[in-house]
Amino acid sequence: MKFLTFRTEEGLKLGVKTEKGVLQVQKTVEELLADGERVLDEVSSYVRRTLESGNSDVFLNEEELSLGPCVPNPGKIICVGLNYRKHAEESNMPIPEYPILFNKFDNTVAAHGDIIDLPFNSEQVDYEAELVIVIGKTAKRVPKEEALNYVFGYCAVNDLSARDLQFRTNQWLLGKCCDGFSPLGPYLVTSDEVGNPNDLGIRSYVNGEIRQNSNTADMVFYCDELVSYISQFMTLQPGDIILTGTPEGVIFGYPKEEQVWLKDGDEVTIEIDKLGGLTNRMKQEV
């Protein structure tokens, strides 16, 4: 199933994308992730009954909705650096021996369609198309062979990065944690619908021009390896998310004379097979 959130006067509501439109369900994303199998069964039955009823009035037009982040309140936001071979090569950095982990915070969370501020104190903001793993079960020291059983689903993210701030010191956090730097969505797609997460086309576009065009098969550490590895050191809880790295084609990887950083008015779209397209427009902060 494809889940989304949308904004209303009463706050964010949860919906399911169907062939007839968006069907609102009386659950929250937090309830969905905390009790996945039971809630999924309830939602699946409700969607089926509603579709069979022939009542089209209950379906909402997605184009008329203001979408929220598909995971509005993630717990831990864990990121993986240099996790695509060709991206490591374009960055002139060695292929990692172990996953390079860093974190973001919830101030970075934004939604499909949101305007993203380019910080007033950065001149080198870059895009990064990434696959996100959304944890659905408590995972501690899980073997790689079982790791994907702890995943509820997947979504897309633009892991925006202010490169001049990122490389100001040896710690990357400053350039990764600006407000709105992790738009998530448009959909949270369940694991069964995605299938193999390491066989998905992944692309980014700036103003309609394709910049990244790769496949999640190019990851250094696959999704099952990442969940297993991280769970050896910290307990993963439902609602935690893992940003799995970006492929080649980011601005940082261009020759310096060809680097044109994101600017006011630029529109960036992240596309991942089976997960839809995530689009945001940039606005220069003053």
Automatic annotation (TrEMBL):
Transmembrane segments: none annotated. Belongs to the FAH family. PANTHER family: FUMARYLACETOACETATE HYDROLASE DOMAIN-CONTAINING PROTEIN 2A (PTHR42796:SF4), FUMARYLACETOACETATE HYDROLASE DOMAIN-CONTAINING PROTEIN 2A-RELATED (PTHR42796). Residues 76-282 form the Fumarylacetoacetase-like C-terminal domain. One of its GO terms (molecular function) is hydrolase activity. It comes from the Bacteria. Keywords: Hydrolase, Metal-binding. InterPro entries: FAH, Fumarylacetoacetase-like_C, Fumarylacetoacetase_C_sf. Pfam families: FAA_hydrolase (PF01557). It comes from Effusibacillus consociatus. This is Fumarylacetoacetate hydrolase family protein.
